[in-house]
Amino acid sequence: MDEELLPIGRFARLARLSVKQLRRYDELGLLRPAYVDEATGYRYYRAAQARQALSIGLLRSLDVPLAVVGEVLAGSAGALEGVRGALEEELARRRRTLGVLERVMAEGLPETAVRVVAEEPLRVLLVRERAAGMEDVGRATSAAVAKLLAGPAVAGPVRLVGLFPLDVAEAMEVAVGLAVDETLGGAVVLPGGRFACATHVGAYEQMSLTVHGLLAWCAERGQAVRGPVREVYVSDPAVTAPGELVTEVLVPLDDPARE
After folding, report:
1. How high is the pLDDT of residue 111?
2. How far apart are CA 80 and CA 75, in angstroms?
3. Neighbour count for residue 259 (Cβ, 10 Å)
């Protein structure tokens, strides 16, 4: 046998990978053995393959998916751009989470001022988007808003309403409605009725604190609530600082108020 060939165990130590990883990379075509013994199935590698093996290990340590690793090894230009974008989104999400945590640390769990209001039915153009869990709700909401604002212009000020399920799941549907008058076709009617309402002042990323306080108020008073949670965006984020954004958060009530 060629003395340059290394058995898989020895090569694994040289490449700082496990034997299991090397077998997996062989199956995926990322790193083929230099020789496979037909009788025993043993894999052998050349020392010169260590650089490629170490490169795979480096990319995996940076959370690069295996499919993208293959593109990088093949020399595909821009293969890592998507990974960078995903990491930047994750970093932004972590920063938003940190902001909420810091507010809880400074102010404690929210004690939200809640009132019961009567809302009239509202005609809206509705756009729905799928969100891959709570961490993806912001993106899905922004996508729905962009689609609405790219559509036909409406008379008067723009009024947007977000609709979010009460039940949190790994995949969920969110929607955003644009209030319109009766002259515009294709609209749906959001039902009116009695709602528990709280005013959120601050960044959208901290909206969960107000929703938490609103639902806690309902639970403490034995109020049965229905979904979806509504967010009525009072402020225009294009001209309002994040800390000054005003949003009305509402949940429909089933039973008469017992404040």
Report:
1. 79
2. 11
3. 9
Return the DSSP state at 225: B
The alpha carbon of 115 is separated from its chain's Cα centroid by a whole number of angstroms, namely 31
Closest among 113, 127, 131, 98 to 206, alpha carbons compared: 98
Nearest to 116 by CA among 231, 248, 250: 250
Query: What is the distance between the alpha carbons of residues 208 and 219, in angstroms, rounded to a whole number?
Result: 16
**Tens-digit pLDDT profile for residues 226-239:** 889 999 999 988 89
User: CA-CA distance, 58 to 56, in Å (whole number)?
Assistant: 5
Per-residue tokens: 5 = 């060939």
**Backbone φ and ψ of 202, nearest 5°:** 140, -170
Nearest to 6 by CA among 47, 48, 59: 47
Residue 43 pLDDT = 93
State both tokens at 102.
């810091």
- Identify the CA nearest to 158 among candidates 242, 234, 241: 234
Contact at 8 Å (CB) between 253 and 224? Answer: yes
Taking the C-alpha atoms of residue 22 and residue 25, their distance in angstroms, rounded to an integer, is 5
Whole-structure pTM value: 0.66
29 Cβ partners below 8 Å, 6+ apart?
70
The Cα 60–Cα 27 span in angstroms is: 16
